[in-house]
Amino acid sequence: MARDDTPNAASVGTTERSFRILERLGDREGCGVSELADSLSISKSTVHNHLQTLRELGYVVQDGDEYRLGLQFLGLGDRARQHHDLYHVAKPETDSLVEAVGERAQVMVEEDGVGIYVYQSLADQAVRTDSHIGTVVDLHATAVGKAYLAHFPDDRLDTVLDRLVFDEQTPQTLTDAEALRTELDEIAERGYAFNDEERTVGMRAVGAPILSADDGHVLGAISVSGPTTRMNGTWYHEEVPEMVAQSAQIIGIRATYS
Amino acid sequence: MARDDTPNAASVGTTERSFRILERLGDREGCGVSELADSLSISKSTVHNHLQTLRELGYVVQDGDEYRLGLQFLGLGDRARQHHDLYHVAKPETDSLVEAVGERAQVMVEEDGVGIYVYQSLADQAVRTDSHIGTVVDLHATAVGKAYLAHFPDDRLDTVLDRLVFDEQTPQTLTDAEALRTELDEIAERGYAFNDEERTVGMRAVGAPILSADDGHVLGAISVSGPTTRMNGTWYHEEVPEMVAQSAQIIGIRATYS
DNA sequence: ACAAACGTTTTGTCAAGCCGAACACACTCG
DNA sequence: CGAGTGTGTTCGGCTTGACAAAACGTTTGT
User: Fold this and answer.
1) Fewest 10 Å CB contacts: which of A74, A187, B74, B225?
2) Tens digit of pLDDT for each residue in B140-195?
């Protein structure tokens, strides 16, 4: 996880604890009090209290001795997404892109220095990975992320790059900021970004930025990803980039003229 | 809101406060500290502390003087939904139903006595309403809810009905439990449920239960809803019910044989 | 039948969440 | 142009209530 700093003292530790419990509940699907308490190093009684409170609020459901994440989070998530109008216009176009290319396509939006997938469309043949809607993605090690950063305003780019942790996820991962900068320049000129096993071995991706049609600032990014066995040759280097870039442009136009 | 009881003392009040803030943030899209503090009757400094904590966790984003719900909730919501396998099989079938019928279709799952929409598909002509994915719905005043309750185990039905608040939402809303019971019997026999302006004036809906193919217990419900101007005659009374019931059956079969 | 593991309940204590007041800043209006 | 009101933020003291540890009741498996 390229989770961020937090050097300063937080204010409400109790809330933080509740969310740590919730996130852990999301990882395993359904688990008991003791397992949570052990893995989080919190006393059982405390975990129990939190779970009871969250249950009454409807954000956790109790199923015998197991607790699971409640569906109420769908409401909060959807509300948050509604505020980004990009989602609405990107959804249908992304679906048609998947219909044309196959594989998997995802739409990313940046929020507070990290990228988050707001939509994902899968073809039948798509590879199952760990990326879902709501997944937090590194901006420097994905096709969407690099396509996005390539059109990021310079001043904000610096602060984002400073916060980046260049942990080497595969042998192909870029590990220094300077190499990333030069690649970003290439991407900006070319119009789309590649990801060749930088994050997951055996997976390739092509991403393109979604730009506002009037002032040209970047709204998000879209990518197609699949296994290297299918993503290769001119299909990977030319045809797919062409289609992704075209979809990105259509979304950008629709997004600007609401 | 048919929000529930909670007469007993909760355990972690701080967490409860955080979620009250988050829910309020979702209602208005983006607002400031003072507005939140006033409407929740919490001191400004407390609200500020909570917001800072939530911001560091990524669940709230700060945009100048405004705070908004963060997209991280998409992750939690999606995780919660993944645990319900009904979603995966219902999604494609719901989309085809919308393609055939037009209007709007939604899939509901019950959790802890309330119904929650886990998926929604809209045709171009669909009416914009306040129901989204994650919306909590009354089980007694919607087509999905009644279709679901009609196949609910008797013992659990009693407890659910006891907790129901029969607030009259439109002149057509059912207001006593006995009338609801007899209607549920009719629905169970007929196989589908109607909603004729019981929740929203001008809106009609047809819902059918999604039943497990082996033991017949109810997994959820699906409905199509639209304006009375288009939903009428045999279309409303026969053709649409036929299609909804058929989709529900298909989903039920696919859900049982994973 | 015992033991080990679980979830829940209880108890006391001290940290920490809460509030109110003061602060800094941005606007508006007379 | 300042007085005035509206923000969001910071500060300090008080007391609440969140926390951990241990006791309790049930279930599991050997």
Assistant:
1) A187
2) 889 999 999 999 988 888 888 877 777 767 777 767 778 888 999 999 999 999 99
Looking at the structure, tell me whether residues B60 and B103 fall in a common domain: no
In this prediction, residue B247 carries a pLDDT of 96
pLDDT digits over A92-131, tens only?
Answer: 999 999 999 989 999 999 998 899 999 999 998 888 888 8
Question: Domain of B180?
Answer: 77-256
Q: Do A16 and B53 touch (CB under 8 A)?
A: yes
Residue A149 shares a structural domain with residue A230 = yes
The answer to whether residue B85 is domain-embedded is yes
- pLDDT at residue B219, as a whole number: 94
Residues 6+ apart with CB under 8 A from A50: A17, A18, A21, B11, B12, B15
Find chain A residues with C-beta within 8 A of B23's C-beta.
76
CB-CB under 8 Å, B111 with A71: yes
Q: Which residues contact A83 (CB under 8 A, 6 or more apart)?
A: B29, B30, B68, B69
The number of distinct structural domains making up chain A is: 2
pLDDT tens column, B201-210? 899 999 999 9
Chain A residues within 8 A of B78 when measuring between CB atoms: 74, 77, 132-134
Q: Is the pLDDT of residue A234 over 80?
A: yes
Q: B201 and B117 in one domain?
A: yes
**pTM of the full predicted structure?**
0.87
pLDDT digits (tens, 9 = 90+) for B45-95: 999 999 999 999 999 999 888 999 999 999 999 999 988 889 989 999 999
Looking at the structure, do residues A95 and A25 belong to the same domain, yes or no? Answer: no
Q: How far apart are CA B155 and CA B109, in angstroms?
A: 19
The answer to whether residues B193 and B146 touch, using CB atoms and an 8 Å cutoff, is yes
A193-196: strand order across its sheet: A136-137, A114-122, A104-111, A218-227, A203-211, A193-196
In a domain, B4, yes or no: no
Using CA atoms, how far residue B35 sits from A79, B5, B56, in Å, is 19, 27, 21
How far is Cα A195 from Cα A104, in angstroms, rounded to an integer? 14
- Do B112 and B206 lie in one domain? The reply is yes
Same domain, A99 and A188: yes
The SS3 of residue A108 is strand
- Under an 8 A CB cutoff, do B73 and A77 touch? yes
* B19 and B136 together in one domain: no
Claim to verify: residue A91 and residue A138 sit in the same structural domain = yes
Backbone angles phi, psi at A116, to 5 degrees: -135, 130
> What H or E segment, with its residue span, contains residue B115?
strand B114-122
What is the spatial distance, in angstroms and rounded to an integer, between the CA atom of A45 and the C1' atom of C12?
14
